[in-house]
TrEMBL record, chains A, B:
Belongs to the acyl-ACP thioesterase family. Keywords: Chloroplast, Fatty acid biosynthesis, Fatty acid metabolism, Hydrolase, Lipid biosynthesis, Lipid metabolism, Plastid, Transit peptide. Residues 254-369 form the Acyl-ACP thioesterase-like C-terminal domain. Residues 85-221 form the Acyl-ACP thioesterase N-terminal hotdog domain. Its main location: plastid. This is Acyl-[acyl-carrier-protein] hydrolase. Pfam families: Acyl-ACP_TE, Acyl-ACP_TE_C. Its EC number is 3.1.2.-. Signal peptide: none annotated. It is found in: Plastid, Chloroplast. It comes from the Eukaryota. It is an enzyme of class 3 (hydrolase).
Amino acid sequence: MLLKRGPFKSPSYAAFGYSLQNPRLIRRQNYNNIVSCDFSSQARKAKLYLVKSEATGEARCKPKRVNGEPSLADRLRLGSLTEDGLSYKEKFIVRCYEVGVNKTATVQTVANLLQEACCNHFALAFQIYDGFPITHTMRKLNLIWVIARMHIEIYKYPTWKDVVEIESWYQSEGRSNTRYRGDWILKNCVTDEVIGRGTSKWVMINQETRRLQKVNDDVRGELAIHSPKTPRLAFPEENNASLKKMPKINERIQYSKLGLVPRQTDLDMNQHVNNVTYIGWILESMPSEIIRSHELQTITLDFRRECQRNDIVDSLTSSHEMMMDDTVLEHHQYITNNGSPNECLEFVHLLRLSSNGYEINRGSTVWRKKLHN
Amino acid sequence: MLLKRGPFKSPSYAAFGYSLQNPRLIRRQNYNNIVSCDFSSQARKAKLYLVKSEATGEARCKPKRVNGEPSLADRLRLGSLTEDGLSYKEKFIVRCYEVGVNKTATVQTVANLLQEACCNHFALAFQIYDGFPITHTMRKLNLIWVIARMHIEIYKYPTWKDVVEIESWYQSEGRSNTRYRGDWILKNCVTDEVIGRGTSKWVMINQETRRLQKVNDDVRGELAIHSPKTPRLAFPEENNASLKKMPKINERIQYSKLGLVPRQTDLDMNQHVNNVTYIGWILESMPSEIIRSHELQTITLDFRRECQRNDIVDSLTSSHEMMMDDTVLEHHQYITNNGSPNECLEFVHLLRLSSNGYEINRGSTVWRKKLHN
C-alpha cells in the first residue's frame, strides 16, 4: 500500500508513516509509554453497532455521528463493512483525470484508491483522532502505524467511468506481536472480475520517540474485533511475489535517472515526500521503450527512509537479467512458475539520496506486454 | 479550468486541449471541413429526455444506456442536471489522498474535481465519442475543444471527508461565434457556503488541422439546449479578476526554478504534459516562506503552448510590487478595490521552455495569509 503514513493514518499528518530517519530505530523497542489497560473494557468500547443497509442487505457500521446525525460523507459514501464485519468494501467510479495512457487508470490511481478504502475502513470501524485513524488505546499510548512494505498486482486496469470495488481487511502477521498486514482485492463491479490484489506490512511506533512498539493485548483486542479470525491473505499462493526479497542493485545499475527533485506538490504538511511520488520516481528510470510497449503488472516497494523537500534523489533500475545471480534466483523462479515469462519483463529498482547513497526505497516491478499500443 | 484537453474532452486523449505547437494557429481560421447541417434536426437529435429524480426532485438527464440499462457509474454518481436542465451539479467527498498541507484539499484537487464535474456534465448532456465529450455535429465536423484560459478562486479549502457540490455550466462568450466559457460554483454541502468559483475560456479547433473553427449554427443549437439563455457568470462583478491581462515578466524575474523536467506521470497518452502539472510548476518558483505562511486564493492561467516529454521548463515568478508599472496598473487596481490588500500577496508567473524561451503558460496568483500555520 502506498500510504506514506499508513493505512490507518490521515495522509495529511506527515509525522506518520515510514518517516524514519534511521530505519534501525524500528528494531529498537521502547516500552516506556506503554500503560496497562483493561482489554475487555477496551474491546467493549471499540465494539461497533452493526446495522443492515436496506438497499444492499450488507452489514454497515453505524456511521459516526456529528450532533446526533451521521456525517454527510458517511451517508453518501458507497462503502460499508461486510456482512461478517471483518472487512470493508467500497465502490469507486474512476474519474476522468485519473486515467492516463490507454485511457486506463494509472497505477497511482489504484494506489490512491486502496489508500482511501483503507482509511475509510478504519475510520468507520474505529475513530479519527487528530487526523489519525487509530484505536482508542493507540491514541492513549501515542501509537501510530508505519508502513514497511507494499505490494500491488493489477491484472486489468479499469478505464474512465468503470466502477471498481475494493475490499480491504487487516490482521496481525502470523504470531508476531509487532506486525500487521493490510490486504485488498479489487473487482470490476460490472463483471465481478478480480482485477487486482494488494498487500502491505505495518508496524506500530510511538509517535514521539519514533521507536517500534509491540502491539499489546489491549490494542490487539480492539483490532481483532474487525480482523478475520484465521489468516485471510490476498495472496495465499505459496512463495508468492509479495514475499520476495529485493536485492540492492548498486553494483549492477542498468538504467538511471539522477537528480530527481521533490516538487512542492509532492510534499505533505511535514515537508515529507508522499508515497505516490515514489512510484513516479521508479517509473522515471524505466526505459521509455518498455513504458511504450508494456504496462505495469506488479509493483513491490520496501520503505526504508523518508525523503524531504531539499533532498535530491537518484532512481536506479536494472532488468531481471542484469540482476540474475544467486540473490534473485528465488524471485526468478516465482516468475517462471506463475507468470508468462515470454511476455513479462521484470525489473529491480532503488531510490537513494544522491548526496550520500542512503536508501529511500527498494522496489521491483513486473511489466506485461500491452495488448494495444 | 485546468484541463489539458478541455472540459469536454477525455483527459486521456492527448490530441485535445491547448496542444497547439504554434498558438498563432488558432487565429488563422480554416473552414474546409465545415459542412452544412440542418440545425433543427441536429437540435432535435441532441435534445435530452429529462426525468425527475424521486429522491432529490431534481431533473436528471436520462442516463446513457448500455444494452438498454444505464451504466453502473451513471446510477451511482451523485450528479444530475439541475431542474431547468441548464447546469449540472455533482457532489464529491474529499478523499484522504487529496488533502495536503493543513489537512485541506490541494488546489490540484479542486482543479481535478472541476474537470470531473465538467466532463460528467457534458457526457450526460451529450455523448462521448472516442473519449471526446462532444456533440453529434462536433463529431461530424471533427471539432474538439481547446482551453485558452482558466481562472479559479478558492475562498475556503475543504478538508478530508468534506462533501463539496460543484455546479457546472457553459455558454457562448458574448456575441462571439468562436468562444465558449465554462463556469463553476463550489459549495460546502453541509453549510451551503460558496467556497470557490471558477471560469474558463474555450475555442473549438479542427482535430486534424489544429485550426480555429467558428461555431456554426448546428453546433450552437446543440450546445444551446443546455446553456443558460442569458449570461450567467460565476464572476459577474465588473472588472473582475478573471478578466485581467497578464504581463510577461522576462525583464523582471524575481524568483525562479529552472530546469524543471516532466515526469512520466505528468504525461498523457500523447506524451504531452497534463494541465495540473502546470499548477505544480508555478508553485515551484514561489518563495517557500510564502507557501508556509500563505495559501493560494486565486490562480489564473493563460495556455499558450503544449509541453512534451523531453522539454525542459523554467518557472519564473515576480511579486506584484516588482511588476508594478503601467502594464499591471489595472490589475493592481482590481486587487486594491476588491481584496484585502494588506493581507493578500499577488504574483505574476511565466512557464517557458528553457531551450528557446517560448511561452507555455502565463499565470497570476493571489495568496492570503493562513489562519493557522
